[in-house]
Amino acid sequence: MNETVLYDRLGKAVYRLCGRVFYDFTGKPRGFLVDETIYDLRGQHRGFFIAGVVRDRTGRVVGFKEDARVREMELPAVEIPPVPYKNLPAPEVPAELCDQVCPAAPPVWSVMRLTNLIV
Fold it and tell me: Of 64, 65, 92, 114, which is most buried with the most CB atoms under 10 A?
């Protein structure tokens, strides 16, 4: 399965995107990706994942994958991620979830922390 590690504003590995499911490093499912829109397990819209960058609902940067770029913004060096635990089974992605439009925002960090995006 294709896995993408997502880092916070300090370069610390926080989540893994495995297919359409976000996992933490304990193997617990935390949310879903529907096209470019992030939902938590309750089906609440939490943000966006566009071109390797995690954005909050206002479009501000919350996290990133290792090779992502944000214009006019320097992303931190990334730490070696921890070894993940075996993934627990994830629930099915609810059929009613749909892709939403990310609002335009300046290339700045959000006040939201990546660890709080999909809890």
Answer: 64
